[in-house]
Fold:
Amino acid sequence: MHVLIVGAGIAGLTAAIALRHKGIDATIIEQAPRLTEIGAGIQIAANGSVVLRELGLEKAVADISVVPGSFDMRDIGNGKLLWVAPLGDAGTRRWGAPLYNVHRADLIEILANALPAERLRLGSRCAGFEQDEGGVTVRLEDGETLRGDVLIGADGIHSVIRQQLFGDDDVQFSNILMWRALIPAEKLEGIDLPERGNYWFGPGRTLITYWIRPGKLYSILASVPSGEVHRESWTESGDIDELRASFSDLEPRAQAMMDQIDSAFITGMFYRDPIDRWTEGRVSLMGDAAHPMVPFLAQGACQGMEDAWVLATMLERHRDDPLAGLREYEQRRRPRTTRVQSGARAMVKMVHESDPERIKARNGRWKGMQHIDPMAEATWSFVWEYNVLEEVERPAGEVLGLSATREAKRMARAESQRAFDLWKGAFTAEDVARGHDGMREGYDRFLTTHFPVPESTRVEEAELGGVPAFRVRDANTAASEEGPVVLHFHGGGYMLGSARSSLEYAGRLAQAVGGECLTVDYRLAPEAPYPAALDDAMDAYRGLVRAGVAPSRLIVSGESSGGGLALALALALKMAGDPLPAGIVAICPFTDLTLSGPSIKEFAGEDPAANRDTLALMAASYFQAHEPRDPLVSPLFGDLRDLPPLFLSAVEGESLYSDSTRLLDRAREAGMEVTMLPVRDSVHVYPLFPFLPETETTLKAIGDWAAKVVGAPVRAVG
Structure:
């Protein structure tokens, strides 16, 4: 087999080396006449380092690069430390390989030197290709043709191969410009710049800086809003007045560093949206030609290296059928790179916030992450922990896609598979890329589109103690002065969801208990962190009681985080000496925001609705600087004595299952009256899905349970 690769960037060079490592010949076609010293610093995290190690190149990289001790995130104006991600020896132990800071040109030189000179065709511009049943012919601009069995487009964001395969698609501009500069070590003497990622964040701008040649060369990536730079061309230039103007109010250490910049070059931050396929016949894409991404997960090079290893392995595995090899290569890579592309854009959005309140919320979230995630695993493990050498030995369907779920995961029943697929497709790549704003829109769209409110449900706006809510009941059920009233709190990890998107489920709850349901629009994190949601829950409950609803008629209810909030409300009411409700309904509750439950790890890749990364983001956004073991944040750790009866249900195999099983044990130890309904072969908060048989069973059980607890004597507190 002979593979033609267009493009001698990091992805293309690594692919040629990996193919030769597997005994497959490869030729690189590169339009540049020579590989010159271009670019600045790049980062090769553990998921790229393991590829270099396998190819015998890690030592060469280690000899000329820097292993940072940590990523230190600071405020650009005052230097305050906001967040730390440990690296160095601790990171190497955790992730299986070091993270290297290296000059791009140094890495390119190491890769190019690992190939025979005759296999690197410099000064050769690709004009197009044709393929037939026997192979692929590449046409060069000078008229020469090259023949191979497979063609790989590794020719970057403006790929000629991609354009011929799939036509034109838009290159997206992030509205951010990036200044790159290099500073010799002698100019930085006396400035405290340790071998770490020295990062600063300010309104709409960042400074990403680190050593790339130990004790010799320092790299700076400075990003600014596009409107701050006005010039006819973006080229390397000694005219850096605009750069200085964009960073004119820095904390002293950052200012001293920036004062040493003599010249810089500037580029726009561009990307493309994920595409539905990369491959046609004997031709496929890799690296920035397939999945060009913004640089704020520092994964462009590493994803190209992962591509290279998978491509080489699949072509070796399918030597007699290269088309099958390319299909499996894409099957394994496209779901993963889509997730990384979206995550990188979400990081860009997070670090370039400009509104003071949103910056405060972001910094609070980072503070919260330090409480529950000191190694920054929830942020980085999905990229750094991935060992492509091991992953290619697993079945292709094991790859985790956008929902962090195994692509080949299948449920036992058709209806549960339908619910699983709905959860899996709840968020688009664009939703994820837009951070919590996009996820909020996606979550509400998911619920309101798939579960519209039926005409038989009567909905009225309400206000409970100053908190907005909706009063919901079945139009065919007569209101009763003595019947149950459900006070419901929607799920969404305290960050997503709304009372409006929970109306359909609230209507079925009202029908199940033969009464009415009020669903509360409590404030959401990160803008409104703890105790905002709990304060709103308390105000809503007290507002209902003041309106004449006896606590003996009240059932507080919630699913997922709403179930945790219902439990926290009961604990807060007990502490305050308020009359307690008749009962608590908690469906798949999120009760431990420290994320210490074993099921979160045990069922990783199995649950399309919840995974550790997203749960950590939500939890940290909610409690922020507060202690996450506070029982009013994580009711699992609360004193459950003297609380009213609890109806609890959870799904075996969901990420939060151990939140329910541990709660059950603690509740029974505390003497609570608990009805536990475990469910199999289903999905997180399954009662949201009215077509599931277990939903009907559970709602009937809630109705029977409510009939018993409503009107029963209320247990005294104290």
